[in-house]
Amino acid sequence: MRDPNAIDFWRGFALVTIFINHVPGNAFERYTFSQYGISDAAELFVFLAGWSIGIATSGRDGRPEPPGRSVVRLLARTVEVYRAQLTVMLLALAIIAGSALLLDNPLILEWHNAGGFFADPIQSVCGMALLTYQLGYFNILPLYVVLLGVAPLFVLVGRVSLLAALALSGSVYLASLVFEWNLPSWPGEGDWFFDPLCWQVLLVLGFVLQGWNRRSDALRRWSRRLFPAGLVIVCLGIVLAVTGIRPDPLIVPEPRLLFTFEKTYLTPARLLHFLGVLLAFAPVYAILAPRIGAMVGYLTQLGRNSLAVFSMGSILSLIGQLVRFQTGGGLLIDVLVASSGVVGLGFTAWFVEWRTRSKSSRARA
User: Fold this and answer.
1) Could you tell me which residues are beta bridge partners of residue 191?
2) Residue 230 domain-assigned?
3) Phi (first) and psi of residue 195, to 5 degrees
4) For residue 1, is it within any domain?
5) Domains in the chain, number
6) Residue 85 counted as domain residue
7) Which residue range(s) make up the domain with 338?
8) Less Cβ crowding at N or C end of the chain, within 10 Å?
9) Per-residue model confidence as pLDDT tens digits over 25-42
10) Which pTM does this prediction carry?
């Protein structure tokens, strides 16, 4: 297993934050950084995915991995994430149906857009397979599937020029903002909650920055110089979040997505805020790691096993939502939900690594 590192640490931090935020209204939600800025843990998760792609495809001894191998690696990961999405969706629907039966409350069948499935299971099953039918709070993995599916294109372009890969990604991003392109939901109306055509820019940005960071120390020098700017952006985000100041989408000029804070389209304000957070918190891991050893170990273990941990976190957060709904919530319930979730995430990461070690031992034997 990998030793603790900043990438896995922050990915683990994002996973815990996403779990807490996916149980809306709980007492701990107010302490997550999504309450004190424009962007949130979703941006961090996608950016680190792009950075990890850069590491995974960089090869060894400074020589890039063969293009064919990189493509196969990314497509294999795409299939793995797709399989995880189908599994968690099926489990989520079973939990919702079981809760409705156990509590004798048919209204639960409408939980987070699940009513469409129970009303029309034939079309909904097809939509699940196409990723166009999504439950609320279960829409990050479909985004991840699409981003990984198109990642080979940007990786191959990046072999020629990282700047060209970023320019291609930025062009798609700007066009999607101007023309409001998005993937349609089906069955039912509307579009995807996370627009892949916009969010791909964050994945590519992580990939490109990792490539520049690997090739020279210029990126590190510039990050130190821009550290004060990052602090200013973070402070501005806190002010906007605390005061509730948001641009009115009905009065901003066209194209309106260039001036709003919409999460669906990863609008420029959210992207800029995330970059500020990145600059402001880049040195934090080196400061924290020697002082919170046990926490570093826990979070990096989550980050090393992000897919399994995220999938389990999605299921546990749904259970937490239903528990709060049935009990009425309260501090004690929130403590039980949060603590059991944190333990469940840690156990999932431990179990995945234990199973991997067991398989390796049997193979050597």
Assistant:
1) 184
2) yes
3) -75, 110
4) no
5) 1
6) yes
7) 6-364
8) C
9) 999 999 998 899 999 999
10) 0.94
